[in-house]
Amino acid sequence: MNAHNQPSFMDIHTLKALCAHMDLGSCTPLPEICLAGSPERSQSRMAVETKKGIFVLERFSLNQGPRKNRIADLLFHLEALSVPHILPPLRDDRGRALIKKNAAFFQFTPYIKGKELPRPEYTRDGWRGEAFADFIRILLEKGPMIPVHAQAFNILAYIRELMQILKIRETRLHDRLHPLSEKIETRLAPLLEAVPLTLSHGDLHPVNAIFGEKELLYLIDWEFFGPKPDIHDTANLLGCLGSEDPMALQGPFVRDLLKKLRASGHISPAGWQALAPMVAAIRFCWLSEWLRKQDAEMIDLECDYLELLVSHEDALSGLWLSLQGEL
């Protein structure tokens, strides 16, 4: 992004007012800096340099405000409980993370320069799997200490609703996916009844992480946090690894992740049994994203991936459960 396509909310008068509100002193926009995480989590965003360092300044709509406040409160709670890899936003002198100005909300978060994720080579890094296992373990351990007033996410209800929409609007796609959704529900429904709900990141995968040379620094994009089955974050992570490279589903990242998680004892036996079908189930959330973007290529690729996951479910489940035994 250069000065000519700089978002209008980043005019110097707005910047000065926002930085003054947070006692950051003088500020300079840095549109040339590429930012980690999804740009779709805000209306617009940009790095800014201040007397106290570089920060990411984001703009949210008024409708986004309540959810962004809940995310900020969660991050403050997690930080207070010494959960690692948490990057909370700044707070003003009244303890507020969001600044209301020009019919929008604004938020400052420290900018962290991480190492670029080597894709798809990162899927073969065992140390990344161990780092994610440590984070999942601690979140499962500390999650019950944090009050989360939200309805639990029901992945099977989500799939049913999506399939009903496809039946009306995308008949051919519905017909291709229907046998897959039926197999997933048959396998997963009885298992989920025994899986406890826990606080989950909700969108845990390496693109939502900031890495150092050989360490996990921070996890970002908590937009989908909430109570979910205890295996949810692990399943989403595996699904994303396999979408980069299906061979990653049996590679070092996955092996070291699962072995370390199993050793922690924080995931229920039913959660482990639900892992393979849960990986496939969560891919319907990604399919919905490609449908929203009308990305025909990614829709087709996602369907291919779903067919692979469902057809190889028994083999994947056997492999992953055997890895858990290698303690």
Give, in spatial order, the strands making up the sheet with the most strands: 1-2-3-5-4
Main pleated-sheet profile:
5 strands, antiparallel
Mean pLDDT over all positions:
94
What is the number of strand segments? 9
Given the C-alpha coordinates, what overall shape results? Answer: globular
Using the coordinates above, name the CATH class of the largest domain: Alpha Beta
Structural class: alpha+beta
**CATH architectural designation of the largest domain:** Alpha-Beta Complex
CATH topology of the largest domain: Aminoglycoside 3'-phosphotransferase, Chain: A, domain 2
Number of helices: 10
Radius of gyration equals 21 Å
Poorly predicted regions: 1-8
Q: How much beta, percentage-wise?
A: 5-15%
Helix content: 40-55%
SSE series: HEEEHEEHHHEEEEHHHHH
